[in-house]
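From: lab user (bench 3)
To: helpdesk
Subject: output format question, protein + pyridoxal-5'-phosphate

Hello, I'm new to running complex predictions and I'm not sure whether the block I got back is the full result or only part of it. Here's what I submitted:
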Amino acid sequence: MKNMGYRVEIGMPIGELDTPALLVDLDVLTQNIHKMAQFFSKSRIQVRPHIKTHKCPQIAELQIKAGASGITCAKVSEAEVFAAVGITDILIANQITGPAKINRLTDLAGTSDLMVAVDDPANVRELNQICQEKDVNLRVLVEVNIGMNRCGVEPGIEALELAKSVQAASSLTFLGFQAYEGHLVLIEDPVERAEKVAQAFAPLTQTIQMLEGVGLPVQVVSGGGTGTYDLAATKTPLTEVQVGSYVFMDDTYSRVRPDFSPAIMVSSTVVSRPVPERLVTDAGLKAMSNEFGWPVLLGEDRATMNYLSEEHAVLTLDDPQKSTLKGGDKVQFLPSHVCTTVNLHEKFYVHQNGALVDIWSIEARGCTQ
Ligand SMILES: Cc1ncc(COP(=O)(O)O)c(C=O)c1O
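Helpdesk reply: Thanks, we reran it on our side. This is the complete output you should expect:
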């Protein structure tokens, strides 16, 4: 056999790509982006997608082209990546503490339209002091805990007091609230989901009225996710939604939101079938995350994942006579959690109708700081 070498070329069939590889179906991705944009096109609510799902400037640009007002990031280092390509309307929906990160944040605030979340008066003082020293202004959202019990002050008087302290800080501008209902986004029953979302946001609505009563206008209320986006206008006071997963979807979210379609798969190669019922492929924990459950092998109804080790997926074929899979064959997995799976890869192999059309760098992967 003549060895012609392995080259990745635009136009090649994706089945010929070496594995593990993260495959993105451009048509499905585009449909998902437009579906979300369309849903909010006549709404007062803005779409500010969370880049935690894709970590990729090309995809953020597609979202903005479809009408997104800006982006949401979790980390300063992520915001730096997107600001460097000219996306400047950025919410960091987390608290940024400690001098190293606040210095990076305030450097970025000098050149971008940043917003950041706070939930602590000491953090407000620290942010204000460094902004003053650098002569920059930083826009701030007070994070309110609406039941997720992660970050955030309690709604009511605590939120009001913190908002007042931001308003009083000379180099900070109080814009409103951050409130994420992450504990509700995966509720499968739509009626229960809607009821719980309405209950969770009710104390925040009252808090907003309290602020307005004392002359503190609330311009921005940011939160929401793929599981709850359609409730934003009717059950919440949100002015913008931070939807992330809808662009790609995954096995977990597909059960909650069949209105968006999976656009991402992990391509893998069978490396061994040592006995008829055991299938071993080359995509392990370095290629697929498992904190939301096992990734799903597509095209084999009766396959059960036994475990993922670093470099291997080990499955049992419950009906081994029906499967012709053998060493060298390609298979595809649907991730159980797309955001952490994407973080394991450097590139998206973008395809249309089975042919490679582009390769996008996952520029903000590993941006943990
Ligand atoms: C603060 C915040 N906003 C929005 C999202 C996006 O959620 P989803 O992927 O459900 O759309 C997340 C996801 O973890 C989040 O942490």
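A quick orientation on your result: The longest strand covers residues 264-272. Let us know if anything else is unclear.
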